[in-house]
Amino acid sequence: MTTSTFLQPSETALLPFVSVENMMRLVNTTGAAVFMGELAQYIEDDFKRWPEFDKTPRVASHSRDGVIELMPTADAENYGFKYVNGHPKNQREGYQTVTAFGVLSSVANGYPILLTEMTVLTALRTAATSALVGKYLAPKNAEVMAMIGNGAQCEFQAVAFREMCGINRLRLFDIDPAATRKAARNLAAQGFEIVTCASGEEATEGAQVITTCTADKQNATVLTDNMVGAGVHINAIGGDCPGKTELHRDILMRSKIFVEYPEQTRIEGEIQQLTADHPVTELWQVMTGAAAGRQDDRQITLFDSVGFAIEDFSALRFVYSNVRNGAFCEKLDMLADPDDPRDLFGMLERAKSAPPAGIENMAV
User: This protein's superkingdom (predicted)?
Assistant: First the structure.
């Protein structure tokens, strides 16, 4: 009898994969607040070295129902991208509005080093970015935040703003009362003081930070000029594609506007309502001290957030740092690794005689 050895994948062929289950385990090990605080540090570090990155507006494929996007970037060591969709109608059909996954690769050899879910991770990095920006722009000692739009992102924003900015009182409004009840229940359990409101106008009363996070893919006026008083910081995160805005144009004209990447934000953000030369300030310059943030107590600051690939790159780096020892991941046989790199066909042929997976060293 002869013996045939099953062709086991080498370590080079195995790629760390973080499933939704493992992502939740990773987050819950530290707690969402601490996780987002640590993630924000990665984002801030990468913003402070902004010129080192390849940058391009995301590649978007728009349809009647939504958008599918690829968000790539790279520095000298790693390349990262995220696949993400945005389909506002999904919630009515029992699907998530946003889903995502991402890959981090080595620039040196092109090999992927991480594959991860990014539906949960995108919610975490969006909130971490918002709160990080709030740390630079929100009024000092702000405690009250209005949350207009109480969907899937709402609780993440609240927890991140408490962790990094000290927000502890929330005023909630959504056109769907069920969404507000859901958010109020979840956030009360997290120790927040909650006020549920009957309108956006009511929600903004006494708020020092106003977060807008709605999903409808249309030019909507979620926030009107009379709802925004002096000294407020606006965290506008719902506008993220052409034709989708939340703020009345008059608010933009009264605000100092801060953006991630102007070339993308002018296409997708609130500032698509303005002329192409309307002045904006890039956040990386604020974080490096090259540009001013909030300049006085009465100034209205506006973070026109659309999400940018470097934030996802930071999130991928952060997750990778937590799974390098084999924790919170499983290994997938993703990369062909023949003994002779030139003999991919030979590896395929040899696999014909290999026994079924899980059957090793069987006598013939």
Answer: Bacteria
The confidence band for 356, taking pLDDT boundaries of 50, 70 and 90, is low
Place of tokens 């991480």: 114
- Burial letters for 243-277: b for 16+ Cβ neighbours within 10 Å, e otherwise? ebbbbbeebbeebbbbbbbbebbbebbbbbbbeee
pTM exceeding the 0.70 threshold for the entire prediction: yes
Higher-pLDDT residue of 114, 9:
114
Query: What pLDDT sits at residue 219?
Result: 62
pLDDT tier, 304 (very low <50, low <70, confident <90, very high otherwise): very high
Question: Is-contact 144 169, C-beta < 8 A?
Answer: yes
- What would the CATH number be for the domain defined by 131-307? 3.40.50.720
pLDDT of residue 1: 32
Q: Label residue 164 exposed, middle or buried (CB < 10 Å: 0-12, 13-18, 19+).
A: buried
**What residue ranges do the domains of the chain occupy?**
11-120+312-333, 131-307
d(CA 87, CA 60): 13
Which positions are catalytic?
A: 240
Q: Tell me which of 1.10.10.10, 3.40.630.10, 3.30.1780.10, 1.10.10.410 is the CATH number of domain 11-120+312-333.
A: 3.30.1780.10
* pLDDT band (50, 70, 90) for residue 335: very high
Give strand pairing partners of 147.
172, 211
